[in-house]
Amino acid sequence: MNPIDAVTLEVADLAAVTRFYSTVLGPDSPHLRLRATEAATTGFRGFTLSLVVSQPGNADALIKTALDAGATLLKPATKTLWGYGGVLQAPDGTIIKIATSAKKNTTPVTPDFDEFVLLLGVQDVKATKQYYTDRGLNVGRSFGSKYVEFTSDAGHIKLALYKRRALAKDAGVPDEGTGSHRLVLSGTAGPCNDPDDFIWEAGTNSPLTATT
């Protein structure tokens, strides 16, 4: 089961943000849609996007592509116990982590990614996990009250839950934030508003599209 068909980001400057994501994800990305909004938001919006790559060189190449397209660096790419990666912020304010579990390059470097993961920062991981399993989602991995990952097929969006404060720390930003998440999901759980007020619409498949 693929819980998410697409992620819609609500943005202020639709034309500029469309150019950015078309450059980073490709113009025909099945993962992302964009929608114009004037909704107010401040601080951390409670989620991050994670692009998982196969090796450190690909992480560097993709980070450079994003920075050249207008992103801001939040955390430079570094080696860690789990692998290698960095964090940046897109022009619309969305936080994107680019990372790999590999420690060295084994193939020619490209700015390509293998997985697109949406991490929702939630107040109560166990309660939100139960909310989603009650709506038909299947758990792939679960680490108690800290982290939950739902199943998805290769090439589809992966949904995961993380404690809000921990997710903000991982992104390198304060966890305070108010207003709209500026995020709408379409897929299995919709239509609904989850316990942390993330909005789901009924599922539908569509490539990267900008709508007014």
From TrEMBL:
The keyword Oxidoreductase applies. Keywords: Dioxygenase, Lyase, Oxidoreductase. The keyword Cell membrane does not apply. GO terms for molecular function: dioxygenase activity; lyase activity. This is Catechol 2,3-dioxygenase-like lactoylglutathione lyase family enzyme. It comes from Streptomyces echinatus.
